[in-house]
Amino acid sequence: MNKFLIALPLSALVLSACQQQQAPVDPAINDGCLHYSPAQTVLIGKTYTKDVTAPGKMTRKALMMKLDAPTCVSPLASSHADFKRVDNIQDIELVAQSDIVDVFKLEGYRVRAKGALATEQGDGAAAPVGMTLLTIGPADPNQ
């Protein structure tokens, strides 16, 4: 009986030592924000177009999405030091990889867009954050 009383705490000690140790969590991952590429996210909002003119360049039309509520975007990991956190963002530029004409046909509709977020920089940026689209379509499939 005494052997069992000694073996039980010893077994518990061995089991606790064998449990998998969890890696420290990067605080940027759990900050409540959307995250930049390579993370993918799904956003829902209403699309509109915006004319963007860079000094000394031609005007271009950008397809934008107005989110229902402001949010923040931050780096997924501390290794993305060149990506800065952006707070209270409500307008995001939608960047099509192909079928650009079809994407612009969604202007004025509520859409559901899936893609990766990236910072937009330079004199021709339509918003501080853009989404490279993987898929886009009506937010309500019955539209």
Number of strands: 6
Task: State the end-to-end CA separation.
Answer: 73 Å
Top-tier CATH class: Mainly Beta
| H and E string | HEEEEHEE
Instruction: Label the overall shape.
Output: globular
The name of the CATH topology is OB fold (Dihydrolipoamide Acetyltransferase, E2P)
> What's the total helix number?
2
Physical arrangement of strands within the biggest beta sheet: 2-3-4-6-5
CATH architecture: Beta Barrel
- Computed over alpha carbons, the radius of gyration is 23 Å
Largest sheet: 5 strands, mixed, barrel
The fraction of residues in strands falls at: 35-45%
Return the domain count.
Answer: 1
Let me know the average pLDDT: 79
Q: Give the % helix.
A: 10-25%
Structural class: alpha/beta
Low-confidence stretches: 4-27
Structural overview:
By secondary structure, this protein is α/β, with parallel strands linked by helices. The model is unreliable at 4-27 (pLDDT under 50). It is globular. Strand 2 and strand 3 form a beta hairpin. It contains two helices and six strands. It has one domain (26-138): OB fold (Dihydrolipoamide Acetyltransferase, E2P). A five-stranded mixed β-barrel has the order 2-3-4-6-5.
Secondary structure: elements and pairs:
Elements: H1 2-18, E1 34-35, E2 40-53, E3 59-74, E4 86-95, H2 100-104, E5 110-119, E6 129-138
